[in-house]
Amino acid sequence: MKSIAMILVFALAAVAGVFSFNWGPVEGDFSTLEIRANGTVLKTIEPEDGSFPESAEIIEAYYVIPDECIGCGICVNQCPVDAITMNADNIACIDPDLCVNCGMCASACPTSTIELLDKDDCALYGIDADGNEELLQEGFEVE
Ligand code: SF4
Ligand code: SF4
After folding, report:
1. Domains and CATH numbers, the chain
2. Whether the CB of 47 sits within 6 Å of ligand 1
3. Angle at 132 between CA 131 and CA 134, to 5 degrees
4. Whole-prediction pTM value?
């Protein structure tokens, strides 16, 4: 079944792009930064030598909006490259490094909660040592 799916993959797959997000110096006592889209953490950024980097690259791949995932696992069985796993909360998670953007999981999802990443949905958050979060930036300029 997956071999048939693999053939379809090459017919359906879109070329994945990379968004390069930029921001200024981060003010505030944060432990980590996160780039998120619709509640999904796309990338966690650690400080380097006491300060945070001011840019990051995000792969344009499909992702799951967690609040609407019912944990049915249908997408896991649809993915021809095994890019989807269920996390400890039974929410589907897509590995953007593996995803080939075929869209088969999105077509099969009964709650329509899998989307191709849109740069305009991305935002930067700061997370402090107590887990408190602060929205730092929306509307990235993309290079
Ligand atoms: S098919 Fe949709 S609802 Fe089901 S586990 Fe995957 S993302 Fe969640
Ligand atoms: S995660 Fe979805 S879009 Fe990506 S390769 Fe798997 S089925 Fe295709």
Report:
1. 2-138 (3.30.70.20)
2. no
3. 130
4. 0.84
